[in-house]
Amino acid sequence: MIEDCRLIEFPQNGDERGHLVVVEGNQDIPFDIKRVFYIYGSDDSVIRGRHANYNTQFVLINVAGTSKVKVDDGRNQKIFNLDRPHIGIYLPKLVWKDMYDFSKDSVLLCLASEHYDANEYIRDYEEYLKIVRNQINE
Ligand code: TYD
User: Fold this and answer.
1) Residue 27 CA, distance from chain mean position
2) Which domains does the chain have, with CATH numbers?
3) pLDDT band at 20; cut points 50, 70, 90
4) Which residue's alpha carbon is nearest to atom 11 within ligand 1?
5) How confident is residue 3, by pLDDT bands cut at 50, 70 and 90?
6) Which of 59, 58, 61, 23 is nearest to 40 (CA)?
7) Residue 19 among the catalytic residues
8) Which of the listed residues 34, 36, 37 should we mutate to test ligand 1's pocket, taking the one with most ligand atoms within 8 A of CB?
9) DSSP assignment of 44-93, as one string?
10) Which residue among 19, 51, 86, 115 is the active-site one?
């Protein structure tokens, strides 16, 4: 699963007026976008996320500032830097994620494949480990 977490570089349609980055569902990213939210006002003392999702895939883009994303599939961990506004991280379903080390100006745009459903969030890490280990053994 962790092998499926990857950075996606979007084209910058730049000219003398500035840049314009386009993210089209099912074209630039591997799902239809059903939900958009963004996170700002966090700083380097905060860890957000700390959950996995049964069904939702995400792409996270630091459209301003920087942050880090630590992904964990119950076996391996990997850290990605989000430090440019045309770079996103793709997160498949069932991966545990922490977002942290936010710069003061960080605006983290999150594109999601599903509408919000609190019941599909796994917020307990021990429970998450049980779920992914059961899947591996199936
Ligand atoms: P939370 O999942 O804790 O944020 P993060 O993943 O960044 O740590 O969400 C914070 C609050 O916002 C929580 O009360 C749930 C609510 N929320 C929604 O209502 N809809 C959403 O799409 C999201 C992502 C969160």
Assistant:
1) 17
2) 2-137 (2.60.120.10)
3) very high
4) 118
5) very high
6) 61
7) no
8) 37
9) TT-EEEEEEESS--EEEEEEES-EEEEEE-SS-EEEEEE-STTEEEEE-T
10) 51
